[in-house]
Amino acid sequence: MPIIDHTHAPEVAWRPNYRRWDLAGPQQGVNCTLATSLLKVGAGAPLHSHEADELIVVLEGVLQVRLGEETHTVQANQTIVIPANTPHGFTCIGPGSARTLSFYPVPDPFAHTTYLEGIPPEVFRDTQTTSKTR
Asked: pLDDT, tens digit, for every residue of 27-77?
């Protein structure tokens, strides 16, 4: 069973001022995905949905989160529970950076993601993917 040293996790090209590191997934022999992210003020994810559930734990900072038609302010020590196919997006609203931990119960949650606003993360822009933009 692997033990993951977060200081050596591979960084994934994501979005400007939004850094992401994959901690666990198929490469570690599991059929789920765990990642940590660091977002500077103003950075975030545009409105999108996944075919799988998603859990986002806010470890530090404050996010403004859109879940369906609702908007919430989420801070450290709170968890965002996102059921499959729920449109969601978020932005770090400060005053400082936000650090999150994201869990998906599938090995590749972005293989079946629909972007309702904006564009996919950098890592998916130049590769074949089933991520869609409406």
From this structure: 999 999 999 999 999 999 999 999 999 999 999 999 999 999 999 999 999
- pTM listed for this prediction: 0.90
Measured CA to CA in angstroms, residue 19 lies from 13, 40, 42, 118 at distances of 7, 9, 13, 17
Q: Return the ∠ at Cα 113 (arms to 23 and 65), rounded to 5°.
A: 75
How far is 49 from 70, CA to CA, in rounded Å? 15
Which whole-number Å values give the CA distances from 76 to 13, 16, 29, 44, 116, in the listed order? 24, 22, 30, 16, 27
CB 48 within 8 A of CB 113: yes
The CA–CA distances, whole Å, from 4 to 13, 35, 102 equal 20, 11, 15
- Convert the pLDDT of each residue in 95-134 to its tens digit: 999 999 999 999 998 888 999 999 889 888 754 344 454 4
* Domains of the chain and CATH, by start: 13-133 (2.60.120.10)
- CB-facing half-sphere around the CA of 14: CA atoms within 13 A: 20
